[in-house]
Amino acid sequence: MNSQILSATALDANSNRKSFPAINRGPIKTLQVNLGYKCNQTCVHCHVNAGPTRKEMMNSEDVALIAQVLKARNIETLDLTGGAPELHEDFRRIVREARALSVKVIDRCNLTILFERGQDDLAEFLAEHQVEVVASLPCYSAENVNQQRGDGVFDKSIAALQKLNALGYGKPNSGLVLNLVFNPQGPSLPPRQNELEADYKRELKKHFDVDFNNLFTITNMPIKRFAAWLKRNKKHDSYMELLEANHKDSNLKTVMCRTLISVDWQGRLYDCDFNQQLGLPLMNEKSHLRDLLYQDHADLSIRVARHCFACTAGSGSSCGGALSTGSST
User: What is the per-residue pLDDT across 213-245, written as a single tens digit (0 to 9) for each?
Assistant: First the structure.
């Protein structure tokens, strides 16, 4: 296959659509593993359609490969996601094994999971192993959060943040990092990350005495549940036009797919979590987690399509928030 993959948009007969530029992978710095789709919440913007009734979970054989791959590839960061990754029965084993290798571990936490049955000591476990918590809080107002994530979610989220703060998370010199994630309510680009972070810190401190380290602004990806919402509301085309119109080539240098590899619950490899949900595997389509024991897949072309404009529009978007400090519009 040609080393430069043509984007899906390049093949579109509609000449008004832009083609997403061809880009290549570099060495892996982050292994992002989706442990399964089971979750205690059902969010409007969720790009994996996670929820309480989902049964897909990574098997024990593939779980055992995670630490082996981290060591073999000398990977710096293990990023655990889902669903609610904490609901996987081997979540704590995975964390322990990664931390024993001095690998940074990120837990993408929805906060309310701290109050689920069997998770009473989860916050303490995360603190003990110095796991970085990346927690979704789409707004600092109850109305907006509950609208996006469900009734009562805001109050539980605040209580969870206060519990994490009590353990030292988000506090200076504690070594316990607590980052929050903002997603827009609808088909718009996020505001400037640094300005919104200042608003979050002021409002959460003033009203709830909550502290955190950083705010990550992430553009809503037009796939799965959010794409269905866009189409129902006849906003899909205008949203895609917004993303394409605000594309910036400068963001291509730091898109997460250059140094991250995504693993699904069956151990299959993708350039990113979004490609994973669209069933677009690495260029080497049969790649599995076990293959990373022997090769790092550096220099492979990245599979791109029209949804990729969500990562390069405005200030850019990644699992670590904005890619630049410039305006989002």
Answer: 999 999 999 988 888 889 999 999 999 999 999
> Where does residue 173 fall: left (phi above 0), alpha (psi -120 to 50 degrees), or beta otherwise?
left
* Per-residue b or e along 207-232, where b marks 16 or more CB atoms closer than 10 Å to that residue's CB: eeebbbbbbbbbbbbbbbbbbebbee
Give me the phi and psi of 242, to 5 degrees please.
-60, -45
Please check whether residue 86 is in contact with residue 129, taking contact to mean a CB–CB distance below 8 angstroms: no
Q: In sequence order, what are the residues at sequence separation of 6 or more whose Cβ sits closer than 8 angstroms to the Cβ of residue 316? A: 248, 251, 254, 255, 322, 323, 324
Distance from C-alpha of 154 to C-alpha of 207, rounded to nearest angstrom: 13
- pTM for the whole thing? 0.89
Res 169 pLDDT > 90:
yes
Q: How many beta carbons lie within 10 A of that of residue 36, not counting itself?
A: 26
Domain 27-234+254-300 architecture: Alpha-Beta Barrel (3.20)
